[in-house]
Amino acid sequence: MSKLLSILIAAVFAVSTGSVFAASHMKAAGEKKDEMKKEVKKDEKAAKKEAKKDAKAEKKEMKKEEKK
Model confidence over 10-56: pLDDT tens digits? Predict the structure, then answer.
């Protein structure tokens, strides 16, 4: 009877420990995804900024040509 109780307690401990580890790994994976999303947003923002800058330079060049 005591062996059965010991096995039951060990099983409960193993399951609870396993679920804690799984939860911490899932949290870490979620943070990694968030970091990747932030990097993508930064890249998109930089690309938009560069496109805007190019358009502005092109417009400026057109004005110079018109003045000549």
Answer: 999 999 888 888 877 776 666 666 667 777 777 777 788 788 877 77
Cα–Cα distance for residue pair 55/61, rounded to 1 Å: 10
Q: Which two tokens stand for residue 53?
A: 């800058």
> Closest Cα partner for 23 from 31, 39, 65?
31
Tokens of 19: 């679920």
The CA–CA distances, whole Å, from 54 to 19, 46, 47, 48, 65 equal 53, 12, 11, 10, 17
State the DSSP code for 61. H
Task: Pull the structure tokens for residue 41.
Answer: 């947003």
Question: Is the pTM higher than 0.90?
Answer: no
